[in-house]
Write the structure tokens for this entry.
Amino acid sequence: MRKKFLVISLFFVLLLLALLASLVYLIGRKRPTNLPATTGQVLTGKSVEEIIKENAEEMKKGVEDQTSSNPFDYIDEECFDNIAALGFDAVEVLGEEHSKVGLNSYISGLLIEKITRCDLGSWESGIQFFQLWKGYISMIPEELSVLVSNKDMTGNDKVEKIRAYGIFGEAFVKDFLRNGENSKLFCDVGKKTDLTEEEREQLETLLISDSAEIEKAFVYLIKKNKLQE
């Protein structure tokens, strides 16, 4: 009888431990907030615009002084990262519709820099950022064309320079390596570009982003510079 009692007791102890382990696992699991973007939609089924709006509203809720002119007072790290996690799908929305999604234009500029990995240097307002951004985007094809054509630079030196252009540098390199001077982004700079196999391999090390994200950056440059697709 005693033996039977011990067996039953042991069974319930093991059962209780299993239930506790399951409970700890479920509590410890967090629903992912940084969901990847898929052609303007995330796994939640919400559009990029909706997700940016939701996170913009959440940012404002956490600000005690709603009259503050300091944009950093409105930045909530989690909400900021949620928007950045949308990837390149968010760039055009932030660049052209930031007023519609209710996000401070200064924060939009910070997000664009983070997503694209581009650094426009020192700027003091959202208006100034977007003025710089427009000029920056328009110069990328020509600047990179001159750069890869420079026969006085080593392949590694070119890689370091191109890396500063973030995902746009990747978009240019990917199309250039595939199509050479017939690249849709390559400008006629009056120079013939003959890359050695070593230089090609060095440039390929720049392609670190997801292929779909690189393609979106490529399309963005084509459209913004009114180039022929």
